[in-house]
Amino acid sequence: DTAVSQTPKYLVTQMGNDKSIKCEQNLGHDTMYWYKQDSKKFLKIMFSYNNKELIINETVPNRFSPKSPDKAHLNLHINSLELGDSAVYFCASSRRQLLTDTQYFGPGTRLTVL
Amino acid sequence: KNQVEQSPQSLIILEGKNCTLQCNYTVSPFSNLRWYKQDTGRGPVSLTIMTFSENTKSNGRYTATLDADTKQSSLHITASQLSDSASYICVVLSGGSYIPTFGRGTSLIVHP
After folding, report:
1. Nearest-by-Cβ selection for A44 from B44, B45, B102
2. Distances from the Cα of B98 to the Cαs of A43, A56, B58, B67, in angstroms?
3. What is the pLDDT of residues B71-98, one digit of tens each?
4. How far is CA A90 from CA A12, A106, B46, in A?
5. A55 contacts B98? CB cut-off 8 A
């Protein structure tokens, strides 16, 4: 029944490691997103994919690479993790692109880099 | 620079009382403004969306207003319930781009 799911919910890792976060939506939406919520609670968009095509890349370091194997999945791979990457990462989806459609958010993945 | 400022940063009220949260923005050009509710440990959930021509929009006990001239919005919560305890986030989308600007949120605590 879960509309947008993310795994894992918590991720604790050492600096320099590579990790992935998975996201799946069963809403049949065309567009998926990754957001980062920092310790001050600001949400910031990182990436947006529409029908597996990248449409937004908000000056995110190259260490972050999204991968969309199909319309229902958008995974986030992070290389060489840094302390500043510690945050909560949210996946979201919308029926079409961002302008008018409601976004549905996943539960978040709390990443802690030690 | 596009910015969204929310006030107050936090608010504590008693169950059953009303409250109003404020959002000021400098995003230009303007496309739409959304209010989200984010429960602790969960993702944001959309409450309302307002376009340039809309002044008021309601969703149950939540009523959002928009003054596009002064670039201000408010979210009024009527007859608050314990379950209203959450962070309320104002998000403004600029026209012509797909980049939303998020406010920091107002943390609301409703006490019995």
Report:
1. B102
2. 15, 7, 25, 22
3. 999 999 999 999 999 999 999 988 877 7
4. 16, 6, 14
5. yes
- Between the CA of residue B47 and those of A17, A24, A39, B38, what are the distances in Å? 38, 23, 23, 10
Measured in angstroms, the CA of B18 and the nearest CA of chain A are apart by: 25
Give the separation between CA B8 and CA A112, rounded to whole angstroms.
29
Task: Kindly report the nearest CA distance between residue B96 and chain A, in angstroms.
Answer: 9
Kindly state the tokens that stand for B40. 């602790």
Give the model confidence (pLDDT) of A12-53 as tens digits: 999 999 999 999 999 999 999 999 999 888 899 998 888 878
Report CB contact under 8 Å: B43, A43: no
Return the residue in A5, A39, A99, A109 with the most chain B beta carbons within 10 A, the one to mutate for interface testing: A99
Which residues have CB under 8 Å from A85's CB, separation 6+? Answer: A78, A111, A113
